[in-house]
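I had to read the description of the data format several times before I understood it. In essence, backbone conformation is discretised, so a fold becomes a row of integers matching the chain in length. I therefore recommend that a typical entry be quoted early in the introduction. For illustration, here is how one protein appears when written out as sequence plus structure tokens.

***
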Amino acid sequence: MSKTPIPLFPLSAHLLPEGRMALRIFEPRYTRMVKQACAENKGFVMCMLNASGDKSRNEHIYPIGTYAKVVDFDLLDDGLLGIKVAGLELVEVTDIAVESDGLRTGHCHSVAPWNCEISPQQLAPINERLKEIFAKYTEIASLYEETRFDDPMWVLRRWLELLPVDGGQKQQFLREGGGKSLLNYLYALIR
């Protein structure tokens, strides 16, 4: 993907391709990251945190993240910077380094997109439950200009973002290619 290091934004939440997330930026290192990304029309990688990983060795950042770009920003009432980001592609992060202000960067390589042959009919009732979540939590729904509840990959990715499972389990689904194993997990959970 890139021969130069890309800034990393580790969070307990996760963003996947075609996903949207609203963030409040308050740490100087991330304010710098966002300003630089916007000025250069580049992005950064949203990474999941590994609670049991050693921070001094950068093992607190899981290897699979999502390259994202800022699609909107605003100065919030509390004076903080509010941004909306869009996930573009999955990447694997290696060679993490720490800059003088604590911002982490890493080399990133594209991860092959999920290959999952699921028909829209196989999504029921998973897509219906996701529609219910979007209807109940309007702050999530408002992030999207369009929703695609009939697109299996879009539905599975939104579920993986929302599932209350630890980052290690989410990383496992991503390593397995996501589709079928995640679909089976959701069937068992929802039915």
